Amino acid sequence: AQSVAQPEDQVNVAEGNPLTVKCTYSVSGNPYLFWYVQYPNRGLQFLLKYITGDNLVKGSYGFEAEFNKSQTSFHLKKPSALVSDSALYFCAVRVYGNKLVFGAGTILRVKS
Amino acid sequence: DTGVSQDPRHKITKRGQNVTFRCDPISEHNRLYWYRQTLGQGPEFLTYFQNEAQLEKSRLLSDRFSAERPKGSFSTLEIQRTEQGDSAMYLCASSPPWGQGNTGELFFGEGSRLTVL
């Protein structure tokens, strides 16, 4: 089955430090991978995507993600975390029918 | 472009009652999706439409659930005889036709939170 896994329920980081939120995927064929962010009682906001091309993709709010085919990973990164980045982050993969399958999510807490 | 709109944002109901949620997608988007998200979980696919045709339904969508998109624009999701296990956030998303700027991402609304007492 095509899926994504987010191995960390929660990531804690100090403001100003770099952050990484991990995601691994399992798909047949070339993956279309996505990151979304969700604030409390809100919908999902699109951050970035990998379709093809450069393995390092840049997205909204200073986030970027690195696609690694050999490790089947698509980790979300940011060089300097902000308190306002604290939220729930979801990795997703596109499957047949243009549906997205989501991971369980990772809570990011940035402390000042 | 006003984004994906969902109504109501919150609904509290008693077990056994019927509820209906509405979703208005981005106007030029022909695909519309419903997802369900329970606390601490990622969104789970329920069903999706291309124009007015319902192309796929998840096995999560029991007989008590029905979704429609009669004119290929807005959609409704009805839950009959609600149960406490139906308490969740119901998310609607849309996407443009493939080949018209569609590279796979879905555009989500703010969700409709259902609480069944």
Structure description:
The complex is a heterodimer of chains A (112) and B (117). Chain A has 112 residues and is mainly β. Helices cover 0% and strands 54% of the residues of chain A. With 117 residues, chain B is mostly beta strands. Chain B is built from no helices and eleven strands. In chain B, a hairpin with a 6-residue loop joins strand 4 and strand 5 (44-50).
Descriptive keywords:
heterodimer; A: 112 residues; mainly beta; six-stranded mixed sheet; 54% strand; B: 117 residues; seven-stranded mixed sheet; four-stranded antiparallel sheet; 11 strands; 0% helix; globular
Rg over CA atoms of chain B:
14 Å
Can you give the helix content of chain A as a percent range? under 10%
Q: Outline the biggest β-sheet of chain B.
A: 7 strands, mixed
Distance between the termini of chain B: 36 Å
- On the 0-100 scale, what is the average pLDDT of chain A? 94
Enumerate how many helices of chain A there are, as a single number. 0
Short summary of the structure?
The complex is a heterodimer of chains A (112) and B (117). Chain A has no helices and twelve strands.
Secondary structure: elements and pairs:
The complex is a heterodimer of chains A (112) and B (117).
Chain A: E1 3-5, E2 10-14, E3 19-21, E4 24-26, E5 33-38, E6 44-50, E7 56-58, E8 64-68, E9 73-78, E10 87-95, E11 99-102, E12 106-111
Parallel strand pairs in A: 2-12
Antiparallel strand pairs in A: 1-4, 3-9, 5-6, 5-10, 7-8, 8-9, 10-11, 10-12
Chain B: E1 5-7, E2 10-13, E3 19-24, E4 31-37, E5 44-50, E6 53-57, E7 65-68, E8 75-79, E9 88-95, E10 107-108, E11 112-116
Parallel strand pairs in B: 2-11
Antiparallel strand pairs in B: 1-3, 3-8, 4-5, 4-9, 5-6, 7-8, 9-10, 9-11
